[in-house]
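Recall from the previous lesson that a structure prediction takes nothing but the amino acid sequence as input. Here we apply that procedure to 4Fe-4S Wbl-type domain-containing protein from Pseudonocardia xishanensis. The sequence below is the only information supplied.
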Amino acid sequence: MSTDRVLARVRKVVGTAGLERLGPGGTRSTLRALLFDGAGVPAWHQAAACRDLGSEAFFVDSAPDANLRVQAAKRVCRGCPVRTACLADVMAWERPSRRYGVVGGLSPVERQRLHLRMREA
Ligand code: SF4
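The prediction returns the following tokens.
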């Protein structure tokens, strides 16, 4: 199932406004909750720097100005007090073939490299 279809399904469940308020960390956690282990949005997300930002600021893979927007998203993550928890969370459940957007301060390619390093260690 494509990410767009999954997001459309989630929007039906939580509503567009609710999803946009979650930010990327919350969106990932919500998807995880819906698709995998049924856990709710983790408590650390309350302190996330992206909590009140729209998830579109972090999921910019195909935008014409994607590189600038990725750098802007990474700046938000650099100042985030829960970055370690966010990155650990996404690395724990994200499928290597399905990495999208900036999460935990890393792009999909950077998370894939981290995944490979973790697997080697
Ligand atoms: S590290 Fe980035 S994506 Fe994760 S919660 Fe913080 S701001 Fe959001």
